[in-house]
Each structure stands twice: as structure tokens, then as C-alpha cells.
Sequence to fold (597 residues):
Amino acid sequence: MKRKFPLLLVLIFGVLGMIPFIIPHPIVQNTDEFLRNDFLRLVSAFAIVLGLGSLLRVHFDKIGRKQVNWPYSWVLIISFFLTSIIGLFGGVSGKGLLPTKIGSFPFDIQTLYMNIEVPLGSTMFAILAFYMASASYRAFRARSAEATLLLAAAFIVMLGVLPLGDKISHGLPSFAQWILDVPNTAAKRGITFGIALGSLATAIKIILGIERSWLGGGE
Amino acid sequence: MRKTILCLTVGILGIANFCSAEELPKSSIAPPTEVKAFDTPNDGGKEISIEWKLSPDDSIIEGYEIYRREEGGVFEKIGFVGRSVCSFADQTKDRVKYYYYVATLCDSIRVQSETTGPIKSFPQWVDKKKINIFVALIVFGGLVLLFISHARRGKPLFIRKIAGLQAVDDAVGRATEMGKPVLYCLGTGDIDYIATIASLNILGAVAKKIAQYDTPLIVPNYYPVVYTVAREIVKESYTVVGRPDAFDADSVFFVTDSQFAYAAAVDGMMLRDRPATNFLIGTFAAEALILAETGASTGAIQIAGTDSVAQLPFFFTACDYTLIGEELYAASAYLSKEPLLLGAIKGEDWGKIIIIVVLTTASVLGLLTKFPILGLFK
Fold:
């Protein structure tokens, strides 16, 4: 029963998830919308409680065991509770129970998001440029025939999009575009076909209970 | 006489030119013709489509106004479209009779078409436009089930070697020898992403090996739902191999659902804990290269796999092994060697053969139409 019940649930909800694709009738679409929006959100809410519990447990454990860089766990825990208090009592845009402003600091989640999360996220994103440079250096070392081909193609494409490329030859930009449009797109489409069929086969295997690894394996 | 003919010719040409172009008298603007209103097909109802043939004066008008009335009511303007547009979708109530006409608008002059109706909208039970996809689904699904039944009868099935998956044993073994943990990153897709589900399947197989070797495992999660599922999978895997006591509940944990905060957290783990092996399997976006490059800088063996085509080049360059698209979905079968799962992969391959045959045939037919001498397939 412990195994059969989840498999039965997956079968029922898997089929229910497929039906709205082909039936546009409001009865089916509204049910689907309820399952996806309301029901799934409800399940996610429970999971968030478990998730946050796990996060706190891991960091309290880190502090307890004085693991490497344990003081940073205090930063996380203090930030966590501070954000929770501001979120619970200050609201999303300063319409909660807390005073809207103390000095120039507005007590709401939007302020924290715009002034802390967005800049920190942008900083991480900016690092990507440097990682791209190091990854490109590694990719463009002509160690094999394939790598040499990649190097040549990349060189042509890079030259093609620069004004210099047009100066060298008027045909270079269009050749670079051809590399992007034809061989590149062909390879991408080949991968996409494989992904589509793989997804379909995986979905069928899971819905019919053939694939059970997600249950931890075994019979 | 010659002078009179010349004057007349110039006069007639002048009048013709005056009437044909910009200076057309407004009262002579023609309305749109053949106005049709019909229930929009293949939808959930509440929509009526209106189509018409463009007015002969389309090039000089401002556009078309659409008017509607219910049974017994008066006409009201419900929309406007610019010139050269010959259709409009009207949001309506279901099962109510409506009448429509379309008016040509030029400056403030309106010339209306004939009225059409009554017409009602209804919700449809089947979207006929998607029947081809449904048939393809049945065909490919049937193929998968056919080969699964072959496998069930014990027919041996060949599956080519996948380097990335062959390296799993070595990668886990290396971590064990070095006494360092294995990091398994499920990507930034939620539980409804098929790549996340495929990654969870692989996690189950990898966790079994890790449990046997008693190697530390780190599974940071991006979504709480994925975290709960991943934890159960790892716990179950430890139980299946008879090592439930070795399972550390804190080895699988939730980090954050903020993309770059997650990338920063996982990067931190890579740099602090120095895992010997990094699995980056699932759906990835811009964080793919940040994670893969940091992992490469620590000298860990990296096995990546994703169906995010845009991120594949980054994994190729920064990781030792990369599972490309469908290999990700085949991984669970490959690692478990379970005949039923291998049968499904055979079904996928036949699906690809069908697609290749259809595409090749269509391409050849398409090319043949380019040779006028053949003219067979026009």
C-alpha cells in the first residue's frame, strides 16, 4: 500500500494533467487551473515550511558543531528572522502593522527585495562575464579535431558580427549568420527532438508506474 | 480640332487621377464585403470570430469598426482594427444570439457592411488542431509500451555506452578514496520540470552507490517541493541498500529559491567543502556556468546533464562529462539496467527513426518542387 498509493496518485494526476491539453471545455480547463494554481500552491506551502525548517536546522547544526565559516550561519539566521518579521508585520509594500518608516528605512519586503536581493543577484550575474572568458579560453584550445572546428566556427562568428569582419570580406557577416542559422540550428533541433521524445517516454514510464526511481527504487 | 482633343484628354486624365488616389470623395468609400461571423473553433467558448473581405478602398481608409448587437438590442461598437486587417475576435457570452456588421472608417465617415447573424458561441470538447499531436503521442507512447513488453518477455536490448554515466562509479569511488563529499545539484527547475524528475531518478541511483561506499553526500535544493522529494529518495536509497543508519537527514537541504543566491550558496559549498565529485543535473539557466566554472576551479570531477539547450555549451567546456538532452532521460534506465526501462529507450529510438524518415522525405519532396523540370510534386 505504501508504494501502490503514490503510484495510483501519479497515474490519476498524470492523466488529469494530460487531458486539458486536448479538451478546451471550461469544465476541464477550470479543474486543471484549480489543480495547478490552488491545489499545487497549497502543497507547496506545506513544503515551504519543511524547506525553511531544513534550512534553519542545517545552520543551527553548523553553529553547534563550529564547522568551517560557522559565523556566517548567524548572518543567515538573523537575516531570516529579520526578513520574516518585516514580511509578517510590514507587509509587501509597507501596509502592515509596523510603522511604515523609521528614518528613511521603509519597513516592507519590497524595500528589502529592491535594495538587497536585486543588487546581490546582479553582482552574481555580473561575475558570469569573467566565467565566460575563462570557459571560452578552455573551449578554444585546439586539442582535437572537434575543438579546432569549434575554434574556427567561433572565430568566424565573432569576426562576422564585428564591423571589422565586413571590412575583411563583405561575405563574412552573411557566412557567420549562415553558421548560426543552418548548422547550429540543425544541431539544436536534433537535441530538441531527443529531449521531446525523452520527456514523453519519461512521462509515460512515470505515469504507468514503470519508472519508480523517484520512489527510491526497489519493488 | 487637335487642340480640343488634347484639352479633353488632359481633362479626362486629370479627373481620373483626382478620383483614384488620395482625393477620393468620402461618400464613395466602399464597405467591407462577405462579412462572416462564426463560433471560434477549438476553444473553450465565449468567443466569436468575425472575418470580412477588405474594402476596395483599404489603402486610403483608417480602418474598420466592428459593431454588435444582441437579439432585440441595438448595435454597439465593440472594436476597431487598422487597415489591411480582415478579422476580429469578439469576447462574448455563451449561447446568446449576436448580430454583427463591420464599418469602413475614413475621417469620421462610416460605411457599414451588411449585417450577419444570428450566431452563438459554444465551448468545444475537442481541440481538433491538436489531434495530430495527440496521434503522435499515441504512436510514440505505443512504441514505448511495445518495447517495454518486448523487454518484459526477456528479449535482450542493446543500449550504447554513455560516457557520462559510465563515469558515475569512478566519480563516486574517487570521492570515497579522497574522503571528500559528493555534491549533487538538482538544478533550478521545480518539480513539474521533466528534467528535474529525471535528475531525481538519477539521484536515487547515485545515492545507492554513495550509501554502499559510505561517502558523504550534499544535495542543496532550489525549491522546497523538490527538497522534500529529494530527501525521501535519498533516504529510501539508503534503506534499499541496507544502510538506513548511514542516512544523514541534513545532507539534503533547502537553500533558497532565488537564482543567484542559490548559485552563490552552491559555489560556497564547492569552495569550502571541496567535493571530489559534482553532479550538475537538471534544468539550469544563467547559473550553469557560474556553478560549472567554480567546480572546475576546485579540481572536482564534474558530471553535468541538462535539457536546457542554451546551457549545454557551458557544461561542455567546464565539465568532464555532459549528458546531452535525451541522455538525461535515459540515465535512470542505464544506471539501473532494468530491462523494462531499457525497453522504453528503444521505443524512443524508434520514435526518432520515424521523425528522421518523415523529415528526410519531406525535405526531398520539398527539394523536388524546386526543379521545374520535374514539376511532379507541385
User: Anything to note?
Assistant: The beta strands of chain A are 101-102, 105-106.
